[in-house]
Amino acid sequence: MRTYLIRAVLALAVVLAVSGSAAAQSVIRGKVVDAAGKPVEGATVDIQATEANRKAQTKTNRNGEFLQVGLASGRYNITVSKDNLKQVQPATVSQGTPVELTFQLTPTSGLTPEQVKANQEMQVLAQGAIEAMRAGRDDEAIQKFNEILVKVPTCSDCHYNLGVAYSKKQQYAQAEASFMKAVELAPNSGDAYTGLANVYNAQKKFDLAQQASTKASELTAAAGGGGSAEALYNQGVILWNAGKYAEAKVQFESAVKADPNMAMAHYQLGMANLNLGQIPQARESFEAYLKADPNGPKAAEVKVFVQQLPQ
């Protein structure tokens, strides 16, 4: 089972409203750091006058620093943003002394105390859902993920994890609906397509399974992964179940290349070789299985194969 996802739980939509003023200054300079206090390079700094149609924009350097000169006197809002994180601070500019500002970009930067509390509550709920899934308490996990979705309907990873939980309960209609919603919200992620492939494969809907698995592999490759071992393995299983052993072998070979420690891919590759009459290759794959998982669920069966098959 792959690692459970919960990235999008923190993506609460907020509207940042800032007001007030700082001491009078003439030049705005500042520094931007991340949650660990490290400089943030390439952050966008937008400077917008609040009482006139004046604005300026700059970016932070490798040290996370920025400098803006030549501003007319007045009140400004300074917005620093990068990678969907942002923080806003007000400043009042006048001829004389520079403004010194420090920004820290975190998932909660710029939030009100109420919004920070809501995020913390969401994190607790999300962690509880993940722990329930890992412990096999699927009904509890389903309940918690649905509670999150009431507050954050766009949490694609919540829908994905619901699909996983429903799949484990063999509630395939609900699992399919959850994975489809995850695809709708995150169309460029291969995880939900892999989940769909598993659901269709379990129901012997091999054509649909093949389409979903192929899409998962394409998306993973497009993201620079070259095709995930899990997606490739799933494609192999689908082809195997359809009796297409030669084509299945190609997928299993790609899976073990992507992840040499994926024991079940070695096992299935051995079975494919065995069915194709390629005995030396089958023995080699079974030995690789035992090396990857010597006490795995197929270990006893594989040991018999290794003993019986000629070298």
Percent helix, as a range, is: 40-55%
**Outline type:** elongated
The CATH superfamily of the domain at 216-311 turns out to be Tetratricopeptide repeat domain
Uncertain runs are: 6-25
Report the strand count: 7
Order of helices and strands: EEEEEEEHHHHHHHHHHH
Give your account of this protein's structure.
The chain is an alpha+beta fold and 311 residues long. Among the domains are: 23-109, Immunoglobulin-like (Sandwich), CATH 2.60.40; 216-311, Serine Threonine Protein Phosphatase 5, Tetratricopeptide repeat (Alpha Horseshoe). It is 50% helix and 15% strand. It contains eleven helices and seven strands. It has helices at 113-134, 138-151, 156-168, 172-185, 190-202, 206-222, 229-241, 245-258, 263-275, 279-292, 299-308; strands at residues 28-34, 44-49, 55-59, 65-68, 74-82, 85-93, 99-105. The strands form two sheets. Strands 3-2-5-6 form a four-stranded antiparallel beta sheet, with no helix packed on it. Strands 4-1-7 form a three-stranded mixed beta sheet, with no helix packed on it. Helix 6 runs antiparallel to helix 7 (229-241). The two termini are 33 Å apart.
SSE layout:
Layout: E1 28-34, E2 44-49, E3 55-59, E4 65-68, E5 74-82, E6 85-93, E7 99-105, H1 113-134, H2 138-151, H3 156-168, H4 172-185, H5 190-202, H6 206-222, H7 229-241, H8 245-258, H9 263-275, H10 279-292, H11 299-308
Parallel strand pairs: 1-7
Antiparallel strand pairs: 1-4, 2-3, 2-5, 5-6
